[in-house]
Write a structure and sequence with these properties.
single chain; alpha/beta; Rossmann fold; Ubiquitin-like (UB roll); 3 domains; five-stranded mixed β-sheet; 10 strands; globular; binds guanosine-5'-triphosphate; binds magnesium ion
């Protein structure tokens, strides 16, 4: 059993045990790999899990040629997949949100491999992944472990078709919908951020410098401290918190709000 695994890990594990198909098992196991803490104590468990996953995938993809393709390595605070039919403006949006330079053209299926870009939201990095519209299972499976899917569609029927593609690939990741031909890019950016359910709190060092940290909405000082250093909770004395120009002293269970500035004091 992995050391310090979050509750979500055990939920994924129970999903794995109750999975009825191999696809569902793979999906649950991919989630387990994603959720397993990465530290020295979990290395063996992680290696075993990855081995099991590889075996499971091999059974499934025996007909596939050319070896397994690597997925997209997660970077940043969250991963968002951009899913849509060809010429739905995926690459154009990826470029305007992240500054990446994917190929863009009026021809169909210009993007043939997942294209990656990093979006900055108030100093927090969000990874964007354009999924090629050929919807190969190895590409679409990136969506399974992403935090969010951004569906680009020009009509309700297109949207419905995209949802059906998700369903048939056993993808249950939260999704939001946008039409880049009618919605301003800035609105789409806000929509993505809102759907991620994150807040930004700032760490404040004793020299007064601040740096942003993204946390799930509802996180408390303990969650915040853990992200800085594992010993911060153990050695915690109190935290100083700035909110709306006021400063107060708070404890580990104090719930954070977007925009809070926090300085942790340790023993
Ligand atoms: N008017 C308008 N045209 C757009 C918009 N977004 C993309 N386009 C055009 O639509 C065409 C396809 O855009 P892409 O961004 O390459 O679309 P894609 O979904 O990445 O397409 P593939 O990768 O080829 O499947 C290009 O000619 C773009 O210039 C938009 O918001 N408004
Ligand atoms: Mg493209």
């Amino acid at each position: 059993m992995p050391v310090n695994a979050p509750a979500e890990y055990f939920m994924a594990e129970s999903k794995f045990h109750s999975a009825k198909s191999r696809e569902e098992k793979i999906a649950a196991m991919e989630e387990m790999v994603r959720l397993m803490p990465r530290h020295h104590g979990s290395e063996t468990a992680m290696a075993q899990l990855k081995q099991k996953l590889a075996k499971l995938k091999k059974e499934k993809g025996a007909k596939k040629k050319g070896g397994a393709r690597l997925g997209v390595t997660k970077e940043g605070e969250a991963q968002v997949c951009i899913l849509g039919f060809t010429n739905s403006g995926k690459s154009t949006l990826l470029k305007s949100l992240s500054g990446a330079s994917p190929g863009i053209s009026g021809y169909a299926y210009t993007t043939t491999r997942p294209e990656i870009g990093m979006m900055d939201y108030s100093g927090v990095k969000i990874q964007l992944v354009e999924i090629p519209s050929t919807f190969r299972s190895e590409d679409i499976s990136v969506c399974r472990t992403a935090e969010l899917i951004l569906l680009l569609a020009k009509s309700g029927s297109e949207l419905k078709e995209l949802e059906d593609i998700m369903k048939s690939n056993f993808i249950r990741t939260k999704a939001v919908y946008a039409n880049p031909f009618t919605e301003p890019v800035s609105d789409i950016k806000e929509k993505v951020w809102d759907a991620l359910g994150l807040i930004i709190a700032f760490t404040r060092k004793s020299d007064g410098t601040k740096s942003p940290m993204a946390l799930p909405d509802g996180s408390n000082i303990s969650d915040f401290a853990k992200r800085i250093h594992k010993d911060f909770v153990k050695n915690f004395r109190f935290a100083r918190l700035w909110r709306n120009g006021m400063v107060k002293q708070v404890g580990l269970s104090y719930v954070l709000e977007h925009g809070d500035i926090v300085e942790i004091r340790v023993k």
